[in-house]
Amino acid sequence: MTAAAVEDSIIWSDDFMIGIKELDYEHRGLITEINELHANLRGQADQERIGDTLGRILARLHAHFALEEHVMAEGKYAHFAEHKAEHDLLIDEYTEHMFKFRSNPTPAARQALEAVLRQWIVNHILSSDKKMSLMINSDDPA
Ligand SMILES: [Fe+2]
Ligand SMILES: [Fe+2]
User: Fold this and answer.
1) Total structural domains in the chain?
2) For the domain that residue 112 is a member of, what is the CATH number?
3) Which of 54, 58, 86, 110 registers the highest number of CB atoms within 10 A of its CB?
């Protein structure tokens, strides 16, 4: 997949599928939410509505990472610690940029916030999550 330009929506495609059904479902939901935020930011949405979407994304990220970490622990994934560290860093960076944007919603703050979500999440799914699912699924005797 080519990296999405910041002015485009992220188009869900099979490239994002990692082969673990519940995680694929959540990734798809996250991308839908990120696109909704993008539309809100580009359109005339008020700060309250944008704030709601930002909060929902944070809640979804927490829930998604908790589920994925459970899957990794169950699958005795060898790279659990480094994968979890990526999740923790993403939460930290997203939270930091979310607060910066909410206190001072400049175009630069908006771009930084969207860049964190897009590059981080898209790259994380395409590399780290895929690597994890390949290793877990290959160890699975089923
Ligand atoms: Fe994930
Ligand atoms: Fe992950």
Assistant:
1) 1
2) 1.20.120.50
3) 54
